[in-house]
Fold this protein.
Amino acid sequence: MANSDWVRELDKKIENLSAKIGVIGLGYVGLPLALLFAKKYRVLGFDVDRRKIESLCSGKSYIVDVNDEEIKNAVGENLKVSNNEKILESCDIYIITVPTPLKENGDPDMDYVISAGKTVSRYLDRGKMVVLESTVYPGATREVLVPILNESGLVAGEDYAVVFSPERVNPGNKKYTVERTPKVVGGINEESTRLAVRLYSSVLMAEVVPVKDCKTAEAVKVLENAFRFINISFINEMALIFEEMGIDIWEVIDAASTKPVGFMPHYPGPGVGGHCIPIDPIFLLHRMWKMDRSSHFIELANSINKIMPHHTVNLLRRGLSKAGKSLSDSKVLILGIAYKPNVDDVRESPALKIMDILDQEGIHWNFYDPLVHEFRWKNKVLRSVDKIDGDVLKDYDALLLITPHDDMVREVKECLHKHDERIVIVDGRNSLEEFRKEHIYLGIGKPEV
């Protein structure tokens, strides 16, 4: 492959920025990536969701990290978007950024990757490159994607390049945007890796890190998030233990963080959420099961993290009991349902599991999230209360804080300072402790008063 004419031709197209880039999947990963490449290349974006395409064509963004102005400046100029796959026909490079969720039974769902692979294979020609950014288990690029691409009659590595480059999007992070986050790339062979390094280096302000092959790059992603998954579960377990011992784990973490080396702070909460941390380790776990192996760390971490939504509801039950009320007779307002602060993404949010538990308990609840005005849950559309003020608080017996959006927490604090009646506060994120004396306060990892 090293002396192939098509390799030199693709290399030249990348060097002179004439390569056409196709991005398949315009969600939280694909849209920022498409906009980044559109600064220097001609980009063709494809997504099966007609609503996303209509939004982009009208100059409207649907994710928190991209503003409307960026859309208006790019779409129609260097970025064309469509829900018709034929837009991809003339591309030189295909970047697949489709979701890889878990199925209801907990198995990895590769259907979106398979579908994207079939789409690309219909337009694949000699001399093109395919990059998979969707999170998968180690080995999936070769085992799942490459056979589908080879249905084109071409041979991966001989006729076209194949690369895995894990997405590292951190929604809401203004410092480490897609442009400023180091990129790992691993190809099906050395030439594929080299082409990918050249491609991403042309648009990133951060380092591009080549690794041995696709499988190594896939392992990088699952290791990164398994590390966080396991450490969060450890802190969650310590929070449960310290609560019983009357120790404030938040104070313990703050003090331990003063050690210059050897300690990395992680924080407890009502569960883990998002498109990576609760999913990537399970991808790895299922791969290990196929090898008749297991990971005691990941399995134990998963069991601990699954406890936290139930523990959060138990805190709510204890708080209402202190107020002389039962769960079934109370109204609860959930504060923040996104999976992390200051984003509008509810994927795998612990709030969803807590809602399930509250429903099973027959509890009347509503939610307030200024970033998630509405979302579909159990085949119905739920809408946030419009605002939070003194009148709204009077309608509820308890506040259950799940996700501490900065502006929302400020609003809640202003209302609570003016609220005369005692209310139950269950604080999942150590954001409302200042109201411990005025109200009935319980927090994860907090000793009860």
